[in-house]
Design goal:
single chain; 223 residues
C-alpha cells in the first residue's frame, strides 16, 4: 500500500474501488469498514438504475446468515459441527501442557473460523464465493477432531486402572468421545438434509435419501 501510494498517480494505474485514486479508500472503505452498515458498491449501482442489484440468493446480514440459503448449502452446514468439535476438543485437552499440538491446532483454526464467520455475518452484502475462506478452518478442525478421537481410542488413552491393577473400566472416555462424534455427525446430516430441498428446481429426488444413507454409514463408523 505504501509503495503504490508513493508513486504519482500519472505513473500508475488508477486505484479501483475508490473515488479519489486512494489505496487507503480502496482497502479500508470499499473493501473494509464501508461494508458494515453502509451501502456496498452493488447497492449504490442498483440505486442508480443501472440494472445491477445485490448478489442473488445471498441472505441478508444477521447471526444466522451463513446457516441458511445458498450460504448454508455451500459451507454453512458444516459450521456448527466444526465449532462443536473445536470447543469440545479444547475443553477435553484443557489440562494438557501448553505445547499440546492438537489443542494449539484447534485454537488456531477455531479463531480463524469464528473471526471470518462474524465478519461475513455482519457485512452488508457478500458473494457466495467469499465463504471459501471458511473451508480451510472447517477442514482442519474436523480432520483434527476425528483423528484425535480415532488415535486416542486405538492407543487406549483414558484407561482407568483399578486398585487391583486388572485394567477394568477401560476406555470410558474414549467411548464418550466416539458417541459425541456420532451425535455431531448425525446432527450435521440432518441439518444438510433439511437444507437441500430449498436449493430450488433441478434437485434430484434421490439426493436427500442418499445424504441420510451416507450419514448412517458415517455414524456407524464413528461408533
Amino acid at each position: 500500500m505504501t509503495a503504490v501510494s508513493l508513486v504519482p498517480g500519472s505513473q500508475r494505474p488508477y486505484v479501483d474501488g475508490s473515488h479519489n485514486d486512494s489505496l487507503h479508500a480502496q482497502v479500508f472503505v470499499y473493501n473494509g469498514f464501508g461494508r458494515f452498515g453502509d451501502q456496498t458498491p452493488l447497492q449504490l449501482l442498483a440505486g442508480q438504475s443501472l440494472g445491477i442489484g445485490s448478489v442473488p440468493g445471498t441472505p441478508a446480514a444477521g447471526p444466522d446468515r451463513l446457516l441458511r440459503g445458498d450460504l448454508g448449502r455451500d459451507t454453512g452446514w458444516l459450521l456448527p459441527a466444526a465449532l462443536a468439535v473445536a470447543v469440545l476438543g479444547v475443553l477435553a485437552r484443557r489440562r494438557r501442557p501448553r505445547v499440546d499440538p492438537l489443542r494449539s491446532c484447534l485454537v488456531l483454526w477455531g479463531g480463524w473460523l469464528v473471526t471470518l464467520a462474524v465478519v461475513f455475518s455482519l457485512t452488508t452484502t457478500i458473494n457466495a464465493y467469499y465463504t471459501a475462506a471458511l473451508s480451510p478452518a472447517v477442514a482442519a478442525i474436523l480432520g483434527a477432531g476425528v483423528a484425535g478421537v480415532w488415535s486416542e481410542g486405538r492407543s487406549g488413552t483414558g484407561r482407568r486402572i483399578g486398585r487391583s491393577g486388572t485394567g477394568r473400566r477401560i476406555g470410558r472416555s474414549g467411548t464418550g468421545r466416539r458417541i459425541g462424534l456420532a451425535v455431531i455427525v448425525a446432527a450435521s446430516v440432518g441439518y444438510a438434509a433439511w437444507l437441500i430441498p430449498g436449493a430450488g428446481t433441478g434437485v434430484p429426488g434421490w439426493l436427500v435419501p442418499a445424504t441420510i444413507a451416507a450419514g448412517l454409514v458415517a455414524v456407524a463408523a464413528a461408533l
